[in-house]
Amino acid sequence: MKFIHIADLHLGKSMFDYPLLDDQKAVLEQVLGYVRQYGADAVVAAGDLYDKPVPPAGAVTVLDGFMTALSEMGVPLLMVSGNHDSPERLDFGAALLAGKGVYLAGAFTGAPRKVTLGAAGDEADFYLLPFIRPGDVRRFYPDGEVRSYDDAVRLVLRRVELSGTRPSVLVAHQFVTAGGSAPDAGGSELLSIGGTDNVDVSNFLPFQYTALGHIHRPQRLTRDAVRYAGSLMKYSFGESHDQKSAVLVTLRGMEEPDIALLPLSAPHDLRELRGPLEALLSPENVAGGSPEDYLHITLTDAEPVADPMRRLREVYPNIMRLDFASAGSYGPGEELSAEEAGSRSPEELFAGFYEQMQGQKLTPQEALAVRMAMDDVWGSPEGGKV
Ligand SMILES: [Mn+2]
């Protein structure tokens, strides 16, 4: 029995007003290609299928197409809701879809949904646990002590009776820590402050494989068989150096499974470029990638440049973000105590600020212009008390 684990699709997501749906669709087609290439027996999607509880119509069409393609190939698809999904909306048609090999766990029903798949002698039990909060579990176990996310997951999993002879796979979408140390987040996740939502990795010891979603950077947690697949695509510039992947899991009975990472790449890569405008305007100066990629450009020119966004867009049509390194990049400058600052004139303070931001001193003409602007605002050369 082998299956492909993906997570955090976030279908319908936009970045800086660029809709990513065409790229997302293309990456799902790569996943379908891997299913054919490796003869996968199932696909697991571990939550955050959509980016929003009420996804745009186009996103629903893309997920529908993915489900239909797998169903036509006779390959089951198992999905749980993530913190971005609406559990009830995701459950639409769930009972009917099970007849077509699409298994959904949207809303929590008191226990993980169990699905047994595979040919006789090569079966595996999949447990589908949607994203749960303590309150979701308390409702079903009013007598249970459920104070934290960890309590909630522990209580639910303790009640699962594993077969003991067939391998078990848990599908979940939670913030999993290993003995208190947090996973390495990519930057595009919606994480709670202070980590109160953490669930310890020890909860997953009984399972031969745990297919996790929530953290967007692909990674293992204490063992290869407990892992975050990572997001379908790079969803923040903090992830621009990540290699996104799907996980090919080959179960080997009650032994540790074999794991292989299958690279995923969107038609438009997400990249960061840095340099002076004139150099960047010749794309041959910029190593790697396509000019059509989604870009965060940082201009390092010391002097102001005219109309940089328009000129850059002629070469790079998909600039998501443009920054200027000169703004504040000349170090912290001198630290002034409130008393020291109070003893300086506004002109002196501005001159220091300007030098820190621009890396050069005000010229006499510029100093005069600043003086005149201050007079305009404060009304007299003796001003400055505001
Ligand atoms: Mn997510």
What characteristics describe this protein?
386 residues; alpha/beta; Purple Acid Phosphatase, chain A, domain 2; six-stranded mixed sheet; 23% strand; elongated; binds manganese (II) ion
Polypeptide structure, described:
The protein folds into three domains: 2-263, Purple Acid Phosphatase, chain A, domain 2; 270-324, no CATH class; 338-378. It is elongated and about 85 Å long. α1 (21-38) runs parallel beside α2 (57-73). It has helices spanning 21-38, 57-73, 87-90, 94-98, 134-138, 149-158, 277-280, 308-315, 338-342, 346-358, 364-378; strands at 2-6, 14-15, 18-19, 42-46, 77-80, 102-105, 113-117, 124-128, 168-173, 175-177, 198-200, 209-213, 219-221, 223-228, 245-250, 258-263, 270-275, 294-299, 319-324. The chain starts with a strand and ends in an 8-residue tail after the last helix. The strands form five sheets. A six-stranded mixed sheet has the order 6-5-4-1-15-16. Strands 7-8-9-12-14-13 form a six-stranded mixed sheet, with no helix packed on it. Strands 17-18-19 form a three-stranded parallel sheet. The protein contains eleven helices and 19 strands. With 386 residues, the chain is of the alpha/beta class. The structure holds manganese (II) ion. The site of manganese (II) ion has 7 residues, from loops.
Q: Low-confidence runs (pLDDT<50, min 5 residues)?
A: none
**Alpha-beta content class:** alpha/beta
Give the overall shape, derived from the CA principal axes: elongated
Report strand order across the widest sheet: 6-5-4-1-15-16
The appropriate CATH architecture of the largest domain is: 4-Layer Sandwich
Instruction: Note the main sheet.
Output: 6 strands, mixed
How do the SSEs run, as a string of H and E?
A: EEEHEHEHHEEEHHEEEEEEEEEHEHEHHH
As a percent range, the share of strand residues is: 15-25%
State the helix count.
11
The small-molecule ligands in this entry are: manganese (II) ion
Query: What helical percentage do the residues reach?
Result: 25-40%
**N-to-C terminal Cα separation, in Å?**
74 Å
- The number of domains is 3
Number of strands: 19
* CATH-assigned fold name of the largest domain: Purple Acid Phosphatase, chain A, domain 2
Provide the CATH superfamily of the largest domain. Metallo-dependent phosphatases
- CATH class membership of the largest domain: Alpha Beta
